[in-house]
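As described in the Methods, two query proteins were run sequentially through the folding procedure within a single session, without resetting any intermediate state between them. The first query and its resulting structure tokens are shown here.
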Amino acid sequence: MSIDVTLQGARVLRPDGWDSAPLAVCGGVFVDMADGREIDLTGYDVLPGIIDVHGDGFERHMAPRRGALRERDAGMVAVAAELAANGITTAVLAQFWSWEGGLRGPDFAREVFDSVRVMRTSVPIDMRLQLRLETHYLDEMDAAEAVIDEFGVGYVVFNDHLPHARLAEGRKPPRLTGQALKSRRNPEDYFKLLLDLHGRGAEVGPAMDALTHRLAAKGVTMGSHDDHTAADRAEWRARGAHVSEFPETLDAAQAARDAGEFIVLGAPNVVRGASHAGNASAQDLIGAGLCDALASDYHYPSPARAAWRCVELGLLDEVAAWRLVSDGPARLLGLEDRGRLEPGLRADFIVMDQSNRRIVATVAGGQVAWMSGEVAQRFV
């Protein structure tokens, strides 16, 4: 049930910048005026809710101990709580469909998707689905497409994590034994699987051409992951995949920008100041104007922290920095009803303590998703 309130006394981050005008909520949307009671938020900032376009931090709740404990519905409730505590009001859960097995295999993907389907109407956070599809997993492509249809997956991203250079030489990749055991496979059988997948490379292009054509006809948003060159981006662009997630180089990111495509960078990369894998720095790409959305990747607190890090470094002003976690992701996902604090839009907002930028309240669709401390007393 939506709260009907008018927020007074706060700084409010609107599309053109900060102001102190009241912000009214009624019926789950922002309105010009509301009949509900007034709440004094002096000393606090109100900002649009965070829209996270790619995050897999849910894994720790769904499978808190690998091979020993699985938490389905209760785990997804915990996911919603963590998202809310970090100001995320719309979350795209990025789940692999991969030959790697385990938490990245089809069985776990079905568990995640089914849990979201069961729980999404009982929590305020809008949880959506992304399938991260390994391109060489050819024998499971039909099953993947069936899952996309069954669960209404609206966002598909294509990955290729095979160590092709090593496999082309017939050599085992590093950490093969550990990866095999995590997927509950014999290491030698796992190595044979990798060689077989690598050997089918000639089939991948035609299979991706056909699949992306069908997905585009269904209105699915598509992207490629870890573009390394402008040619990589051109290949996926030709297939209708117009999102470049975590481009590894300046050339790949610039190619996406020149084509008017969306660029997603990892918020942890911004917070760290560098890619943990040694790829292009997200800070450098943002400074070059090559970012439309910051994603949590594996760490839900990072989007808010990364936005302010951009301000501290002088890369962006506060409006532009917060746009990378709100309006920018909304546009990427085609969600015209959110991402800004404007009348008629979905009432997704966070309340932040001005003294330390700590998120103290999150409201999603006009429903209280999370509150903590003194600000809760003002509402209650």
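Immediately afterward, the second query was submitted; its sequence and tokens are:
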Amino acid sequence: MTEISALKAGLIADIDAAVTLDALEALRVGALGKSGVVTGLLKTLGPMSPEERMEKGPPIQDLRESVTAALAGKKAALEQAALGAKLASEKVDMTLPADAAPQGSVHAVSQVMDELAEIFADLGFSVATGPEIEDDWHNFTALNIPETHPARAMHDTFYFPDEEGQKMLLRTHTSPVQIRTMMTQEPPIRIIAPGRVYRSDSDATHTPMFHQIEGLVIDKGITLGHLKWTLETFLKAFFEREDIVLRLRPSYFPFTEPSVEVDVGYTLTNGQRVIGGDGDAAGGGWLEVLGSGMVNRRVIEACGLDPDEWQGFAFGTGVDRLAMLKYGMNDLRAFFDGDLRWLKHYGFSALDVPTLSGGVGA
């Protein structure tokens, strides 16, 4: 037993003298590892008789427990000392600027949506929303679109299987929001309806899903002059130019009568088309940006209002198209590719909230 006592004292002394975790680990392996000295003594207990094992086993077990406890205590002390040394040497200067954290950006479509909402809020318009899955009546019939109109065709519209005789579809415009508003809200009405819409198109200037904003005014004594002033004021604020010139061309839409296409003048500067100026001037031209008109009497009647008492105008434009014109983008498909390089280039800071005082595009 004297040999085991001496071994115990020697191992514990070596453990107490260890100054690094690596040295301590080497002592652990030498004592308790597969070929360690304490492990070797434990293996000698197997062949012994019960009487011998009762005599020699307790000192060997005590040796193992004492060495294990000494190792655990020393390890904790060394780890604490290492942590203290690290804290003492790695001081943080709180006056230094923090490292820049990765930042996302606001998508151009979201930014333009906010810009439009800010502009029309200043003109007294509120934002109205509606379902993207619509029924045939709200999307077509109530808007005076006949059964034979090409817009109802399968190659233009995404239809769902008929349910209980009712045709359901992905809305092709946000005009159903106008219908729902007129049916649930007493005039006068002044709303914009932004949102996603769906049509079967896909090329550089068309995608199956895109964003649209429509406006509706229902009141007494509304004329085409009110429509032109509203659109002119809106486009000047959006493009942040006072030299916006509009050209209204007669057109046809089932839901408005009379109907007009709205062109805006542009000039060519260094080969780039810049919105603003007279499109008939040298080096200029006209670009269609809006469809609009006076709300058709049949649409007003379908919503339960008296067209002899209430009149109004409506207009609609593509949000993605406006973003392309203002910020110099040339391919609509890039809006939906999710390319981080495109998003970083055309994205906006989350703190860059559009305001009229700062310029909606500032």
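The mean pLDDT is 87. We note this only descriptively and draw no conclusion about the first query from it.
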